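[09:14] KT: can someone run the structure on this one? pasting the chain below
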Amino acid sequence: MGAPRLHETLIAEKIVELIDQALAGPMNLKVVAIGALELYPALETLSDNVPAVFVKPAPSTQLERITTGQTYRVLYNFRIVFVKAFGPNEEIVRSKTVDTQKIAELLIDHVDLAGLDLPNGQVLFSTLKTIEWEPPEDNLVAALNADMVASALVFTVETTSRK
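[09:31] RB: done, structure tokens below
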């Protein structure tokens, strides 16, 4: 079998790497991982592992053949969920907004994903599509611990891929 033509894992790993290298220290991130928040193996102890960032492909990957051969334009969508705890008297909305914007700015600054090299393909561009200040994950983390909040970003990466 030849080199892969689909690259969800490689792209997700690069997003995790960018966030980990640039923001783990300044934001005191304890977890930066590929995966879904709701499937985190230590969900019951999540409050001990925040702030955290989870990156997962979602909701779909779209493929479009663009030549008569085997060249495709592939649009990957990633849901990036940020979870943090807050303390007494903390301005949580402001704090969550500032931290989420750090992640957003990092993604905006790395539209080529830092020159990510894909086997049998190339990154055309990436775009931060949305920031959700009160995503569904916010209810999940609040149910686990009333002192936690979440935000989510939807990040798309467009590539070409060929046989």
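[09:33] KT: thanks! Strands lie at 31-34, 52-65, 72-85, 117-118, 121-132, 148-161.
[09:34] RB: yep, looked fine to me
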